[in-house]
Amino acid sequence: MSKSSRPARAVVASDGLAIEGHSIDYIPENERHAKLSSQGPFWFLGNFHFFTISIGFVGPSLGLSALWTMVAGALGIMLGTIFMAFHGSQGPEMGLPQMIQSRAQFGYRGVILALVATMFVFVGFNVVNISLIINGLKHVFGLNPTVVACGVVLIGALLSIFGHDLMHKAFKWALLATLPLYTLVTIALMMGVGHSDVAATAPDLGFNWVAFATLFAIGASYNISYAPYVSDYSRYLPKNTSRTKLIAAVFLGASLSGGWMIGLGAWLSQQLQAHDALVALNQVGSSMIPGLGHVLVLVSVLGFLPIIALNTYSAMLTLLTGIDSIKKITPTPNARVVSIFAISLIVLTCVLSIKGDGVALLNTFLVVLLYFLVPWTAVNLVDYFFVRKGRYAIAHFFTPKGIYGAWQFRGIVSYLLGFAAMVPFFYIVDATSNQEIFVGPLASLLSGVDIAWLVGLVVSGLVYYLLSRSLDLEYERRVIASMTESDFVAMSRAPTDT
Questions:
Q1: Beta-carbon neighbour count of residue 442 at 10 Å?
Q2: Could you tell me which residue, 286 or 16, shows the higher pLDDT?
Q3: pLDDT in tens, 180-213
Q4: Pairing of strands 18-19, 11-12
């Protein structure tokens, strides 16, 4: 076996921690050491934090009651999780990060279109995440925002440098720390702790379709936004992992915690008139036991740090995929480290530059996020489940001269047409001032009810399916049958175009 075809091995630090050696290359089956049992808790924590609580604040800010906010958010979360969970099944079957697999739909170089959208997701999430952290810690402890931002970014970078295994452990530790505390807060809130004086002056909230549809779309976008992530953290599972069990584990984990946290946020907003999740947690905790509020805030922030690493890690995979799509690179640990620090610097610069209300920023970001991701997720899932049905020539993902080519017009045209079809239905409004940022003409006719995401799903998916009828799938299957796993490993780590 040549040097370029050897599997990447982990680099072991002096304290015994293993620095992940893989990035955008294929994971050989003899290195698939992850367990299916870790996926449910991993994605449960993915939504089990104060960022998701903040989504619950959006409903009452639009005039929606806590109950209707919880219903709309939970239904949206479940819809988004369906797409997220189906993407997750691709990891063990192909042993690749999600965006490398997208080369089958968009081409070796054409995938850059999808990469731009997903990089916006990863970087944008961390900008909003860290903005919420620094604002909350400033209000609760008076901590310097710049110092907090630098510390959070640095910890996220270090966790993502060590990579897959340490991040799974960090998620487990964070879940063990936060689960009892959030359970305590939920019980306390149900018993009326912390809001006796405020509830009397709370504004009357009820139901309206525009707010309900907005919350539904935000909930859906929140978990659809995980679609580009999931394979990144399931690709170390054995190839024979049950697709049904994996989809169920991801769905249950992400939807249960998402619905819980959105509901908790909605009640905190309605009963405490809260606008900051960490401040609200501090208020409830302090109402129970003096000093408990500060403990809640600190544990919440510490338990959230793996999420910062999650976004940084997937952004690294996206950046390396983009660079590799322009000029072939060898995915070494050094390339991972350099890209992680570059991404962290960009995130930190954005955090320190952007000012404004956290909830308004969150609402606007999640709505726009959905618009960029929907056409991609429709194309990717239609290709995987209905066109190629999970059969891919993995080695050909790593060369522009393979069967997927440098540019795949089917995926690119489907994405662009789907996005264009959504624009007249766009409904982007500042949640705090209720000022319109951009409202499409058809959204106005619908009184602001946001169905742009549904239009994008249908148009992109249908166009791609129709265009794919001209694919020579029989020839592709013969190519797949002629390749072995050693070909996958060799091609994925080849230093030059083949």
A1: 16
A2: 286
A3: 999 999 998 888 776 655 554 556 678 888 889 8
A4: antiparallel
The continuous run of DSSP H or E covering 438 comes out as strand 436-439
Note the residue count of the chain. Answer: 498
Query: Which amino acid is present at 161?
Result: I
In 3D, which of 55, 422, 61, 67 has the Cα closest to residue 211? 61
Question: What six digits make up the tokens of 65?
Answer: 């009651």
The two tokens of residue 88 are 């997750």
Describe the chain by its helix, strand, coil percentages, rounded to 5.
70, 5, 25
Q: Across the strands, what pairs with 18?
A: 12
The angle formed by the CA atoms of residues 308, 309 and 312, to the nearest 5 degrees, is: 90
Q: What is the DSSP string of 87-132?
A: HHTHHHHH-S-HHHHTHHHH-TTTTHHHHHHHHHHHHHHHHHHHHH
Assigned token pair, 121: 């997701």
Domains in the chain (CATH in brackets) are 3-369 (1.10.4160.10)
Q: Between vectors from CA 368 to CA 248 and to CA 202, what angle results, nearest 5°? A: 85
The two tokens of residue 275 are 């606008």
The values of phi and psi at residue 392, to 5°, are -135, 150
CA 269 to chain centre: 25
Q: How far apart are CA 132 and CA 181, in angstroms?
A: 19
- Name 429's bridge partners: 436
Give residues with Cβ within 8 angstroms of 454, minimum separation 6: none
Quick one: pLDDT band at residue 75, thresholds 50, 70, 90? Answer: very high
Take residue 490 and report the two structure tokens written for it: 């060799």
Rg (the chain; Cα; Å): 22
Q: What is the DSSP string of 443-457?
A: HHHTTT---HHHHHH
- DSSP codes, 24-54: SS---GGG----GGGHHHHHHHHH-SHHHHH
pTM: 0.88
pLDDT band at 311 (very low <50, low <70, confident <90, very high): very high
DSSP 186-206: HHHHHTTTT-HHHHTTPPP-B
Structure tokens at 368: 């726009």
CA–CA distances in Å: residue 2 to residues 28, 130, 490 = 16, 44, 8
pLDDT of 226 strictly over 70: yes
The two beta strands, 436-439 and 427-429, are: antiparallel
Looking at residue 206, what DSSP letter applies?
A: B
